[in-house]
Amino acid sequence: MTERANALRIVSVVLQYPDDELLAHRPVIDDAVRSLSDGPVRDHLVEFLHWFGSVPAIDVRRHYVETFDLRRRSSLYLTYYLHGDTRRRGMALLLLKQRYRAAGLTPPETELPDFLPMVCEFAAVEGARGEAPLRQHCQGVELIRTALHDSGSRYAHVLEALITLFPPLSDEDRAAVTELMAEGPPAEDVGLAPFAPPQYMTGMEIRA
């Protein structure tokens, strides 16, 4: 596996919910990060691991839930940013699932195929071809990065590492990100708050 693929896989792993198994592998993750070549990707991941490897498990889990499950602007489900709560999102999810299966991968039924860790794993396995979904959803990735910085989350370092692997956004993409930040994703149904993916509309308190 190439170093680029290793970096993508590390990002995929650390953006998943920090359950017992993941937290038990913190020393392994640390070794994998430190084996990367010197550069901004390694630097951002090392900075993240300074926190991730030293904070008690309960605090890591609380921060993860507050960051990704309870904040509208840092959801890890990429198609929401591009399509919002529209029928186009359902088609995008279906096409992404078909892309995985065509590559011989079977996404778990318990998770949507646009979950950022899953998209990063696909890119790590499939190389340049597998990176297409990440490039397609670069605006969403940038929105997540910005939201994590705004909230002061340590996970901002992980998104910085991910973005560093790809070319800078075009002027057109930056304009679209600015518009999304101001107006939220497109919607067909009334009454849904911007940046609140349907799977989170469960009565839990959601913060902007």
TrEMBL record:
Keywords: Nitrate assimilation
InterPro entries in alphabetical order: DMSO/NO3_reduct_chaperone (IPR020945), NO3_reductase_chaperone_NarJ (IPR003765), TorD-like_sf (IPR036411)
Pfam families: Nitrate_red_del
A GO term, aspect molecular function: unfolded protein binding
GO BP annotation list: chaperone-mediated protein complex assembly; nitrate assimilation
Source taxon at top rank: Bacteria
SUPFAM superfamilies: TorD-like (SSF89155)
Keyword Metal-binding: no
PANTHER family according to UniProt: NITRATE REDUCTASE MOLYBDENUM COFACTOR ASSEMBLY CHAPERONE, NITRATE REDUCTASE MOLYBDENUM COFACTOR ASSEMBLY CHAPERONE NARJ
NCBIfam families: narJ
Designated name of the protein: Nitrate reductase molybdenum cofactor assembly chaperone
UniProt organism field: Kibdelosporangium aridum
